[in-house]
Amino acid sequence: MSTKQTTPARIADPIEMEVFVNRLLSITEDMNNTLVRSSFSTNIKERKDCSVALFDGAGRLVSQGTQIPLHLGSLNGAVEAVLSHFPVDTIRDGDAFICNDPYLANGSHLPDINIVTPVFWDGVLRFFAANIAHHSDVGGSVPGSIAGGLTSIFQEGIRIPVSRILRSGVIEDNLLRLICANCRDPEERGLDLRVQIATNERGSDAVKDLIRQVGLTKVLQSVEDVLTYTRNRLANRIADLTEGSYRFTNMLDDDGMGGNPVPITVTLTVADGLLSFDFTGSGRQARGAMNLPINALNATVYYAVKALLDPDIPPNAGLFEAIRISAPKGTITNPEMPAAVGARSITAQKVAGAIFGAFRGLLPKEKVMASGNDLCPAIVFSGPLRQRTGDFIYLETIAGGSGARFDLDGMDAVHVHMTNSSNLPVEAMENEYPLRVEEYALIPDSGGAGRTRGGMGVARQIKVLEPDIIFSARSDSHTVGVPTGVDGGRDGRRARLLRNPGTKNEEALFSKIANIKLQAGESIRIETPGGGGYGDPSERDPAVLRQDVLDGLVSSVSAAEEYGLKL
């Protein structure tokens, strides 16, 4: 039985709406390019760990850039925080606001700093331009400000409630200095924050140009039309689904402090034209930093619905109205102050994987996907800067394999779900930091076998060239969590973290190790999971499998044992 569908609201002018959507996308893409090209830290300028968005004057998302899905939670939350703490009649043209805190300003973790800029037309607040960037360090007890074993948000860096950072076009230098003084590289923080402020000003100017060209009335009507269009389009997708409840559990190895595995459980219910996601049954609030703030949980759900039901649907507030999300307070998917949240991206990935799993019972097999690596494993190296005050922070999240689909192999070496940042090129890393990449490669046989195989995980091995370099990591799926296959497909391989691999001093490290001191000549190797396979491996096309072997993706041993093909 399909869900009931109400009569859709009408769109005033579909053609103008389509033109308007693309104009908004061009504005957000220009903002994103400005932010990336003008920034100073490698995490933003090379890895593109940033996002941008436009909101209307009521705080409704109108258009989001195409970068990091997880950032939607913080951007939404930041605009809500501005409107909650600053009455509209106190917001002035030339103002801008800054925040990062998950408990004080609806953020997701402290390194993600939001800048929100009001856009005025004829003296009236009409829009907000907003951006977010992951800063490589915001202070705290560990370089990089993130470690799975931190137990309180007070250990994770400077907390910024929503505050005015720009007043009448003039930067509040005292506030900026205060923020930067609490970071390990104050000069870089200050420069990148100024770039964020300037990025919004560019977006604001572009919105005003749009209003100037087509008129305020048409712009405001087009906003309503695009939200209505998205609302109607999602309603059509939900109407095609069979009513019922579907449940899936994903697993974290631990809560950041070792110990027992932690379940991430979702119950998806389709009824009365709504999608409801209930996370009752998920683990209690983590002792470590694996907790996922509610706004980040919301962003994860919105991403999964869009990805599974209609990848091309515009990302705006019209997407949210038919979705209901509930998570008990004091659990890993809705933590209470002062729970640490720095490593929340790993939990977000597990939540996304659980939602994808729940939809397996609902979608036709052609749209089902095996589990990907469902992680955001990160490594951080830090040491003294040579030419200025402070410490360098090399932060990188490492890709893995994506899950196989009905008719396609999983992609090799990609970010999945909530993260979408680039790798840091070897040349850039070795130029910026006293580090050397010894190996950067796909891991043979890491993708689960199947009629279509899972994508391959990645090995990245880095040698330290100077003494007393501090290393931390956050990862998962080392012991319990595994990228599951579907319909007879095999599971993907788990992750590993090694110190001094291939030597007599080789040591397997805990997946959430923090603040270990490395000496010159020591190496760290991280291996990420592959994706799960889809279908019986014996049904794989022999010619395709032979090419996998020739390409070094599948070993001849695995070809014989997993696929039954002797070469």
Any overview of this molecule?
- By secondary structure, the protein is an alpha+beta fold.
- The chain has helices spanning 14-38, 42-45, 71-85, 173-181, 186-214, 216-239, 294-309, 344-359, 426-432, 542-550, 556-561, and strands at 50-56, 61-64, 96-99, 112-121, 124-134, 163-167, 170-171, 244-252, 262-271, 274-278, 323-326, 378-384, 391-397, 435-442, 458-464, 469-474, 496-499, 507-508, 516-518, 523-527.
- Helix content is 28%, strand content 21%.
- The protein has a seven-stranded antiparallel β-sheet with strand order 2-1-5-4-3-6-7, with helices on both faces.
- Strand 4 and strand 5 (124-134) form a beta hairpin.
- The chain is globular.
- The N and C termini lie far apart (49 Å).
Short descriptors:
20 strands; 28% helix; 11 helices; 567 residues; alpha+beta
Q: Sum up the overall morphology in one term.
A: globular
Strand order of the largest sheet: 2-1-5-4-3-6-7
How many β-strands, per DSSP?
20
Strand portion, in percent? 15-25%
End-to-end C-alpha gap: 49 Å
Structure classification:
alpha+beta
Secondary structure layout plus pairing:
Elements: H1 14-38, H2 42-45, E1 50-56, E2 61-64, H3 71-85, E3 96-99, E4 112-121, E5 124-134, E6 163-167, E7 170-171, H4 173-181, H5 186-214, H6 216-239, E8 244-252, E9 262-271, E10 274-278, H7 294-309, E11 323-326, H8 344-359, E12 378-384, E13 391-397, H9 426-432, E14 435-442, E15 458-464, E16 469-474, E17 496-499, E18 507-508, E19 516-518, E20 523-527, H10 542-550, H11 556-561
Parallel strand pairs: 10-11
Antiparallel strand pairs: 1-2, 1-5, 3-4, 3-6, 4-5, 6-7, 8-9, 9-10, 12-13, 12-16, 14-15, 15-20, 16-19, 17-18, 17-20
